[in-house]
Amino acid sequence: MTYVSHADLGGQLGHGRVVPEPESVRFHAPWESRTLAVTLATGGTGLWNIDMTRAARETLPNYTALTYYEIWFAGLVKLVIEHGLAAADEIAAGRKLRPAREVPRVLHADNVPAVLARGAPTERSVGFPARFSIGERVRTRSEAAPHHTRLPGYLRGKVGIIERVHGPHVFADTNAQGLGERPQWLYNVVFDEREVWEGDAPAQRFKVSIDAWEPYLTPA
Amino acid sequence: MSGHDHDDGHSELGEMDLRVRALETVLTEKGYIDPAALGVLIDTYETRIGPRNGARVVARAWVDPDFRDWLLRDATAAIASLGYSGRQGEHIVAVANSPTRHNMVVCTLCSCYPWPVLGLPPTWYKSAPYRSRAVRDPRGVLADFGVTLPDSTEIRVWDSTAEVRYLVLPERPAGTEDLNLTELAELVTRDSMIGTGLPRAPERPA
User: Fold this and answer.
1) Low-confidence residues in chain A, pLDDT < 50
2) For labelling, which of A83, A109, A162, B19 has a CA lying 20 to 30 Å from the CA of B139?
3) pLDDT for B206
4) Cα–Cα distance between A185 and A155 in angstroms, integer?
């Protein structure tokens, strides 16, 4: 089974210039804020995690044709159906046609401030030491992953330097697949523009870094 | 996302209104969501959590060297001490600009952004032009924002690929020695904390 993310945009050409936006703008239509709220509230059932949410969105076949909150909405509909919360006919009809399933919890209004303030930290303890230390040279995995991953395509098979050791964090790749958190050491790895683009971009004195989990890296 | 213009699409906006309302109704009828929670969530991100939070963090770091050190060493804790924490800011790293180094934050894979200090990301931050070009042509992106940096300034782009969120600590503008915390925070723009802008210069005293 092939896995295709349509969200891996780093380095793509042809998307045009960036259009700045005033700081006071929050939403562009009422349905956008409703979509944000319904997404957060439904996520509050605890049926899926943030990595599953990202996987649901990035695999939408029409991802690049949708606006941001259209992506959120389509991703949520996908998760709602996949997890048996509601069926497509109920969502189309806008009413309940079958009994509800059980959910682990419901996010009630009086709980919202506490839940947002707590967030969902991803740092964990593990019983094994970090393989790499600051200053070490590492090479990123060169193959595409057949599942959700957080190693961007433009940095596959590139050599960089470990700059920070963030600690062990929930591993997005397994967490997105429902295979568990399986925490791995997370590093900030920095790459020189010449390594990344090999002269195929305007030279301009810059470096780029990513946060990479240990399984993405080998010694270089 | 790009090439999708809503300016003349009132019928489309109406359609999204209806679709979102239909989904919300089903989820409410089935007891999965509390309609009152939706209002609280919207109010939170419309009025309470936004870039003025981050501006207060930056202003504090400008006037208080101990706080600045703490912010650069453990931003999550330093920021929490001012009352900002939680969702999409569970692990924050602050990175300081200097005359030789300019930091810029992007999420090429989605839209990761430090919500507790900056609120929800602006449209451009989530859109293809920024996400594609920030890691390939950062000086070109800065030009789109009207920012030109000296060639001698190295640019560091932070692609937020995990759950660590980055906050840029811009340099304090010259001529601000007499300003108080509130006045300093007013100079701190959202874009200066993403790295696509610089703080405002102080108005000259009359």
Assistant:
1) none
2) A162
3) 46
4) 19
The span from the CA of B197 to the CA of B192, in Å, is: 4
- The residue length of chain B stands at 206
Give the position of tokens 């989904």.
B23
Residue B132, classified by CB atoms within 10 Å of its CB into exposed (0-12), middle (13-18) or buried (19+), is buried
**pLDDT score, position B13:** 54
A220 interfacial to chain B (CB closer than 8 Å): no
Compare all CA atoms of chain B with the CA of A31 and give the residue at the minimum distance: B17
> Band of the pLDDT at B8, cuts 50, 70, 90?
very low
Between A203 and B123, name the one with better pLDDT: B123
Q: Are the beta carbons of B78 and B70 closer than 8 angstroms?
A: yes
Among residues B110, B127, B132, B152, which one is catalytic? Answer: B110
**What was the ipTM of the complex prediction?**
0.97
Interface check A12 vs B, CB under 8 A: yes
Q: How many CB pairs under 8 A join A and B?
A: 304
pTM: 0.95
- List alpha helices for chain A, DSSP H: 30-43, 50-58, 68-82, 88-93, 112-118, 172-176, 193-197
Amino acid A199: pLDDT: 87
Residue A120 structure tokens = 């969902």
Whether B107 is catalytic is yes
DSSP percent split of chain A into helix, strand, coil, nearest 5: 35, 15, 50
Those of residues 123-162 in B touching chain A at CB distance below 8 A are: 123-124, 126-141, 144-145, 151, 153-162
Q: Please list every residue in chain A whose beta carbon sits closer than 8 Å to the beta carbon of residue B145.
A: 18, 20
- Side chain identity, residue B44: T
Q: Residue B6: which pLDDT band, with cuts at 50, 70 and 90?
A: very low
